[in-house]
Amino acid sequence: VQLVESGGGLVQPGGSLRLSCAASGYTYNNYCMGWFRQSPGKDREGVAAIYTAADNAYSADSVKGRFTISQDTANNTVYLQMNSLKPDDTTIYYCAAGVVMFGGKWYEASDYNYWGQGTQVTVS
Question: Distance between CA atoms of 1 and 8, rounded to whole angstroms?
Fold first, then answer.
């Protein structure tokens, strides 16, 4: 199983970035795909998730209206479009795949089985 993130970088406040996560090595539609972020000394925070088979998406209140998760099922890729970025959004973002019950706690990092290496997002 491989999850490869890309798209991080440095952006000014108010700017946008799009993160990508290319998944391989497993049956894509069997898993929920999530984006998490983690700053030093803090717990990993669920940002957004999408139930790939149902195409149902969820996002944290802290990013609602600014971040959008989407997918390209033909290419087993999940995206996180981040708009109106703030300095507080600065951290490492991780893509994850997990067998999360539909309607369950998509934001719980412990429910995810596979993780990408992370990509740094800096808003400054």
Answer: 22
Token match 């139930």: residue?
A: 51
Rounded to whole angstroms, the Cα distance separating 124 from 89 reads 10
The two structure tokens encoding residue 20: 């990508």
C-alpha 88: how far from chain center: 16
What tokens does 114 get?
Answer: 């596979």
The pLDDT tens digits along the chain (124 residues) read 899 999 999 999 999 999 999 999 888 888 999 999 999 899 999 999 999 999 999 999 999 999 999 999 999 999 999 999 999 999 999 999 998 887 779 999 999 999 999 999 999 9
Looking at this protein, which amino acid is placed at residue 85?
Answer: L
Residues in the chain: 124
